[in-house]
Amino acid sequence: MQRRTFLKNTAAITIPFLVGFSLEKTQKIRIGLIADIHKDAMYDADDRLTSFLKVAQKRKPDFILQMGDFCQPVPKNQHFLNLWNAYPGPKYHLLGNHDMDGGFTREQTRSFYGIQQSYYSFDLKGFHFVFLDGNDPNPKPWAGYNRLLGTEQLSWLQADLEKTKLSTLIFSHQTLEDPLYGVHNAKEVQKMLENVNEQSGFTKVIACLSGHNHTNYLTQINGIHYCQINSASYRWVGEQYQRVRLSEAMDKQYPILRNTIPYKDPLFTFLEIDPAKGLIHLEEKVSAFVGPGPAEMGIVQKVNDPITAQISGFEMEY
Description:
It is a single chain. By secondary structure, the protein is of the alpha/beta class. Helices cover 22% and strands 24% of the residues. It is built from seven helices and 18 strands. The protein has helices at residues 45-59, 78-85, 106-113, 151-163, 186-200, 248-253, 294-297; strands at residues 6-8, 12-14, 29-34, 63-66, 91-93, 120-124, 127-131, 167-172, 205-210, 217-221, 224-228, 234-236, 260-262, 269-274, 279-282, 285-286, 310-311, 314-317. The strands form five sheets. A six-stranded mixed sheet has the order 5-4-3-14-15-18, covered by helices on one side. A six-stranded mixed sheet has the order 6-7-8-9-11-10, covered by helices on one side. Strands 1-2 form a two-stranded antiparallel sheet. The longest helix is centred in the first third of the chain and has 15 residues, at 45-59. It is globular and about 60 Å long. The model is unreliable at 1-24 (pLDDT under 50).
């Protein structure tokens, strides 16, 4: 099948790809995704998470995934975590860089969340799903947050992908697309994934989905799709654009908000793999900015890093 890409009403992107021809898939797979809620920075994080969980309980996806920057492992966040834990279906975590804010270790955050591994994989209905931890220690000297897939994790990923015969989706907090704003060794990871596809004889690794950048972007690199899922809560714009958007009292309680553009309604999405139609579909969700948006503030938009209060719907055809 030839690859073709087109826009549909500027909101839907269709990208064909090849899947292992020997696989028998007859059941739909549905996944609920929410990224970058930032409980410790967002005044209504509980309501945003509850909105997602209510929709998920109604739709009953095969599993839900929070894609990192969820909450710090502190007692005051136990109620927030309890909301997540009360969801009756399968649910999984990714570790975000801000989940260790306050000097906490990954081990402490994992213990708080109740998870044993920060990277793992499993099979479901004829597909393979991989979940990575982009918070391995950076090479020294280094300033800023950890954003690396270390040697041990890379070796595990290589073996995991070589072992599976199934078409694969990869999830990570930091994007595997851009080494500047995502995983520092993204190019090394991309080369590994491309080699796996070449050696497999089909597009085994279909797509890599991430959060972290609070943007809404889809691209393709050497036959693999890289999709960034927007934040559930806001977009960071920095001190040069800061302003009080809610109230003086709220601004004092959540000072980080003055450097952001919050979204009025929570953003989350549901991914569906439909073997009968040969489609992977990401559901569109549109919100609005609280207060002036980037255009009114004179912020120049970047094509590969849009500031937008939405998650675009797109389809991947196979």
